[in-house]
Amino acid sequence: MTNLQSNKINLKTFFFPLLLLTIGIGYSIYVVKFPQDKIVANYVSYNKIFKSLGQHISLVAVSAGAAILVAVPMGILLTRTKFKRYANTVVSIVNIGQTVPSLAILALFVGIFGVGFKSGVFALWVYSLLPILNNTLAGILGVEKSILEAARGMGMTHSRILAKIEVPLAFPVIMAGIRTAVTINIGTATLAAFIGAGGLGDLIIAGNNINRWQIVILGALLSALLAILTDYLMNILEVVSKNK
Question: Given Cys at both, which of 64, 149, 215, 227 links 186, Cβ 3.0 to 4.6 Å?
């Protein structure tokens, strides 16, 4: 690959994220500088936008991070010979979190942890488990038997085969599950505002309550752009991992 071709790829890679950031920043400036009335001017500020965005990212990052720490080791464990028979049962239990409506999950955790950030994180954590667990199982169980047999023939231990062969080969599939979970969580996190967990949902709910379209669009646009940007960046990471 020539330097010119490499530069073109780099430009394409960075152009789309810059475009998304420009749209988000541009509309935020527009609402702050040109509010439709005094109510919008008094409610929306740069501090309010950054605070809501920061809360939203925190909700998603903490819940998704916790889900990865639980679902990936659990998925690996369920691919081991001693625990394979429990895989379907565990997946069925985790799947309950996906079948229950998101608002019902949020309400359930409010009853346990009270109103606020903690309830939002736990509800989103439940929603994140299934895609990561499923993809971890699929990725590791999808490794070709011939590769594993060759590794055993070379005298590699089970733990070494897992660390050096199974997990690296399954990593792109696991990353796809993480990508799905994070993207879904960004959208679902807007509902966390209903239980006082903050986030961009605050802007959507407030704008709807006071019937101000600028605020509603601001919250919805920023959450959508955040989901698209995150999905795009994680897709790049997924492609890079496949090409290694």
Answer: 227
